[in-house]
Amino acid sequence: MTWEETIEYIRTKPEYTNLVKDAYFDADLNLNVDRFYNSEEFKATLQIIKTYTKDATTILDIGSGNGIASVSFAKLGYEVTSIEPDTSSTIGANAIEQLKIKNNLNNLKIYSSYAEDLDLPENYFDIVYVRQAMHHANNLDQFIKECVRVLKPNGLLLTIRDHVIYDEEDKQRFLEVHPLHKYYGGENAFTASEYKHAITKAGATLIKELKFFDSIINYAPLTAEAIEDIKKEKTNYLKKRLKSKLGFLANIPFIIELVKKIKGINTLEEKNFPGRMYSFIARKQ
After folding, report:
1. How far, in Å, CA of 177 to CA of 180, rounded?
2. Same domain, 52 and 131
3. Is the per-residue pLDDT at 230 higher than 60?
């Protein structure tokens, strides 16, 4: 199947209802935009932009998919350029064009190309935003090199929600459990070191690495409350194990934290989430 065929197929299957909703794959393109625009992920992204580049006006959105981010940024008044190699009306550049017309967005330009071969001027954009696209790079170094080339000096590179693996064995585990890879075969992932090396090699300074549990940007559609519930569940399990050895001391938070530190116990284990997502914030030198 193609990527477009895969999305059209899962829309017909009840078992994928939540995935279609959570990944903004609904056939109603405006519904996807509205939900993304009001999402905690987008709010957190805007906070990063506000923190690191207050006066930005131009954004390049690479790997725009069905346009949820491009349109959301354009609705906020940014001058947005959207890059999406897929031309389909379901999940690609033509879907973004439909949204542009329907929302009367004259501040949105759309191009169909790959990030590795951008036909755009150097030193032009205040922000290059890449959501769930860097891990699909045909050539990771060239992908990031182009992202940095088109940034203005001191411009912000913001890569969002990229799958991270520890090694090849971990990658295979991720591909096996990914719900859509079996249909279209297009998933991929790199190690965190490979992403960071590509960013610095391209001439950008890494400001911050957001690991999976560091931000709702990465762990959505899980909520912050759900993450806290996971931590509580793991901590309670640890208490039960320690109670037979420590008695009432197992109920003292300081003792629990001390045991965690000594034993190297982490109540939030990334390894339990194959293909866990990271985000990276960098600035062009």
Report:
1. 9
2. yes
3. yes
